[in-house]
Give the backbone structure.
Amino acid sequence: MRKFSKFMVLGAAMMAFVSCGGGATKSAEAQCEKECEAKECCLPVGVQLYSVRDDMAADFKGTLQKVKAMGYDGVEFAGLFGNTPEQVKAMCAEIGLNPISAHVPLADMLADVDKVIADYKAIGCKYIVVPYVTEERRPGGELFMQMVEEIRSIGQKAKDAGLVLLYHNHDFEFKKLESGEFGLDYLYSAIPADLLQTELDQCWVKYAGQDPVAYLQKYTGRSPVVHLKDYFVEGEQVGDPYALIGLNEDEKKSNSAFEFRPLGCGVQNIPSIMVAAKAAGSKWLIVEQDQPSMGKTPMECIAMSMEYIKKVRENKPCGEGHDHKHEGCDHKH
């Protein structure tokens, strides 16, 4: 991490670009519009706390404080680790983090959607997210059409409560249906935008062979939250990449062909995605790294990603003449 220290000390003139978010009493989106209006890639940045789940389990508040110190404006939850919604709300307010959204397993929503909505509304989240679906509910699965209706129902409940339901994709939603349409596109065509919006995970969009920028453009006005995720892939895929995100535990986890990387250390052109997100009307960028890599800890990985975002923001206009690789990365797998 010492390699990045020169980026951590920025002049006062750059502060508007380093942190577009406000405190607990000020909307991070509004603050970004005020301070970064001319900056075409400036959006407030949060982190999906699944990235540092072990740290959260060991020290929930302390981890939030460290995340804030890195420069993150907000957080997306992946469980509350035994804390009450009221406790979490108070922590975020004290630290100055915006509680943006929460990934909630579909099974939990189906079991008690009213409690899920009430809990995350009490924290102050604006969005709740379907993060993953099991095989039978994926495109081509026997319960796929049932899942579409389940999500429609949850989306209506969320809307009635003043929240917005998002769907977080992986690559399996890019399986084509008999109509020739990708399952992901069918989901968004079958359910109206007022009941379901996107949380495009750009790692899995690209891994599925699609263009992350083009997909953001396709869902302009329907992509309030975008997952920034980088990865490295070499040669033929061996084993199951989902074993790397804590799923399919029986599959081989040691996978020489695929690994998640800090932003700028993999195959993604992050500056172009950041610019496209702003142009598409997105409100938040969310950093996510399911597993650490390159010999770094999870906390070091998300710190590297934030420092890279800060560096991208220094370019005027964003991304022009800027190598989309992180200069501190070792690109050897």
Q: What stands out?
A: The first helix runs from residue 5 to 8. Residues 103 and 231 are 21 Å apart (CA to CA).
